[in-house]
Amino acid sequence: MIHGHITGWVLALILFVVAFFLIKGGKTKGAKIVQMILRVLYLAIIATGVMMLTQVYKIDFQYILKTVAGIWVIGLFEMILSRTAKNKNTSVFWIQFVIALALVLYLGFSLPMSFMNP
Ligand code: HEM
Fold first, then answer.
1. For the chain, is the Cβ count within 10 Å smaller at the N or the C terminus?
2. Beta-carbon neighbour count of residue 36 at 10 Å?
3. Is residue 58 included in any domain, yes or no?
4. 92-103: per-residue pLDDT in tens?
């Protein structure tokens, strides 16, 4: 489960960057296709995340924060891509993105199921 989760968010991160540069390069059709795959990945990330949550003995504050931060990152993927496509300012969202991503990675890797905690 955890491997599916990691595969999901690593791929999502890569496709987010690909979609971003496709939009920037004016390749809207290509960007649309990548964004469609990206949305399927969101579902996979959330599904594997929820499945792991069901295996947790006690869902404490760290887990709640991890879940909220995870959904926050996904929301920011969407916000940044849609605002970039509309040529709107995205700096506030990029700042949030760095914070939310750092938080979700830190919490993910420090929680007990992580491969970083043998
Ligand atoms: C883009 C969004 C997300 C990223 C980058 C992310 C990242 C991570 C990382 C790095 C880990 C630790 C993996 C390991 O070291 O083995 C992890 C574990 C986990 N994630 Fe996510 N995640 C995201 C979204 C979510 C969401 C939306 C949920 C909940 C619905 C969720 C729930 C979990 C749970 C329950 C674990 C296991 C924690 C444990 O060790 O007990 N994640 N995630």
1. C
2. 10
3. yes
4. 999 999 999 999
